[in-house]
Q: What sequence folds into this?
């Protein structure tokens, strides 16, 4: 069964600290993996899209990694800011029926 | 100011009434999507449209209907047949099919009592 699992479910960090969010997937065949940021009560905003051949991709203070062999991805946030408080969702696109499999997200709270 | 808009932000209806959620985009995207988001669940696809006058059912289409008469607009009707309509509804669009980045609207929170 195609699944995307994220950990931790929630995380609290202090402003200025770094953190890493994890995404494990069992989707096959694989097409691409995306990370979205969703503020409470708003629509998701894309952070990165990574294909099979990409190991690392950065978007400002956000860096995503992908290990297609172990089917794992991580999202590293550097020097966190209060505005980083949001839910971060990992999404994997299948290669055959082209469906998007959505994770449940990690809820991040950045405290002053 | 390009983007995708949804209205209204909050919507309240009585059980048994149909309700239509609006979604408009001025990004010139061909594809549009409707998702439903519930607490503790990932986004679930209701309907999608790759081109004007054509749309396909997603994973949870029962109790919903859509139309795509214009490229810019993709309204979603929640009918009285939908058993549990209270949810956060998100509309998205993309240049082409699902391999491209999807841009989301701000969402509509529907409450049915």
A:
């Amino acid at each position: 069964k195609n699944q995307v699992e994220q950990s931790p479910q929630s995380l609290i960090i202090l402003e200025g600290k770094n953190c890493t969010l994890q995404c494990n997937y069992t989707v096959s065949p694989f097409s691409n993996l995306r990370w979205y940021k969703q503020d409470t009560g708003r629509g998701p905003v894309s952070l990165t899209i990574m294909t099979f051949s990409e190991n690392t991709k950065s978007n400002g203070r956000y860096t995503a990694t992908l290990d297609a062999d172990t089917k794992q991805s991580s999202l590293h946030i550097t020097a966190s800011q209060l505005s980083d408080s949001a839910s971060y969702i990992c999404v994997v696109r299948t290669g055959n029926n082209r469906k998007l499999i959505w994770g449940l997200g990690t809820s991040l709270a950045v405290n002053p | 100011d390009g983007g995708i808009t949804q209205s209204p932000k909050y919507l309240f209806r009585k059980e048994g009434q149909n309700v239509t959620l609006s979604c408009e985009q001025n990004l010139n995207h061909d594809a549009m999507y409707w998702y439903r988001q519930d607490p503790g669940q990932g986004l679930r696809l209701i309907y999608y449209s790759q081109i004007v006058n054509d749309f396909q059912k997603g994973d949870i289409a029962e109790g919903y209907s859509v139309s795509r008469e214009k490229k810019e607009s993709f309204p979603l009707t929640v009918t009285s047949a939908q058993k549990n309509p209270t949810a956060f509804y998100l509309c998205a669009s993309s240049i082409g099919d699902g391999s491209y980045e999807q841009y989301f609207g701000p969402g509509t929170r529907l409450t049915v009592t």
Notes: The CA atoms of residues 41 and 87 of chain B lie 11 Å apart. The first strand of chain B starts at residue 4 and ends at 7. Chain B has a mean pLDDT of 93.
